[in-house]
Amino acid sequence: MRLLTWIVILLVMVVLGGGGALWYQRHGTAGGADKQSFRTAQAARGDLLVTITATGTIEPEEAIDVGAQVQGRITEFGKDTNGKSVDNNSEVKQGQVLALIDSSVYQSEVDQAQAALVQAKAGVTRAEADLVQMQSKLRQAERDWNRAKKLGPSDALAEVDYDAYESAWETAKANVAIGQAAIEQAKASVTQSEATLKRAQQSLSYCTIYAPVNGVIITRRVNIGQTVVSSLSSPSLFLLAKDLAHMVIWASVNEADIGQIKAGQDVTFTVDAYGDRKFHGTVSKVRMDAQMTQNVVTYTVEIAADNKDRALVPYMTANVSFVVAKRDDALLVPVAALRWSPSNPELVAPDARAELEAREQRRASGGNDGRPTTRRSNAGASREGGERGTVWIVEGQFVRPLRVRTGITDNVNTEIVSDELKEGQQIVIGDAVAGAAAASGDDAKNPFAPQFPRGGRGGAGGGGGGGGRR
Residue 467 gets which letter from DSSP? Predict the structure, then answer.
């Protein structure tokens, strides 16, 4: 008895299921083509901002590496403007002492150079005195030679004495020339000693490290007692930022976007430390030296930013937005509205179907069907001259194409710069769930099976307006 009951119940369920399917096939799909639902949005006015995004690093406007030109041991640090020992974040003025290097070796070189200079000057004095003696001997020899020439070789003057007077005069004359050369040599030694002393004094002065400009110590790289070794390059002791009230951002911009970046362009940026706070800057320079990383070419853009409140700290990461174009109170439509077109020609108003057929023919031949051009960039397209596009407005159970001229777009909303479209008009942005399935064949569906919505041809990725069913 129980088995018979279950058999009857099962037969009833099969009959009900088959009847329901037959009714859905005959009645549920009838007129389905006439009941099409669309997702729509209104053409509305608003502000549109087109930006290019990039990531950069905040740098001091001018950073100076303060190094040592001599080697030695750090013996003492100077005082900052607050009277404290120089350290990280210390504010200093130009000419203030930052550090002292042990100067004992360089002081001894100065002393040695000074002694050599004194000795060289004494050499000049001695050479000048020797010249006076040589000049006196020359005059004596000249007088003796003149008397000998008057007498000449004779009984009063032997020939050998005559030759001796002549030789003595010539020797005295040569000695005077030697004395004059000795003076020049002594004077050259003085000049050399003076240069050696000046160099030793300069090296001694390098033992005191001064602040070259007004600024803030970003990094102190040495400690007292540490030995500084200066060989081929000057070791860096301090990193000094000249003015933290003005900062520079070095942003890496993709080559696809660099053509839209110009000097003087407005920039907004954020840093992780301050959440949603927006900072403002201006493009100061676009560097020509490109960088390639994994076949991606980027250019460095320098951005000047004020930092009067000292909120920005060097080497923060900045999330930068370059303002490419801006429109206030513009007529806007979602980008999806310009990409959508009806999949069924019967949905188009009868008097507009000829235009749809022409569009399909242009599309088949590879022509532009009026949809916005896709750009491989992280910024919206900036089309100042405008391009032609098509939006579809709803008329009862049909849609009608409306040709418009587009302006700039941020890839979510697009500006309409022509008068064909009016504010508040309903435009289609995508297909919603169809009213019914196909009327016959394998496309028939069981009404008791789960139903899944079908995505529209241009609705996915559309921005802006909310979708309403008609």
Answer: P
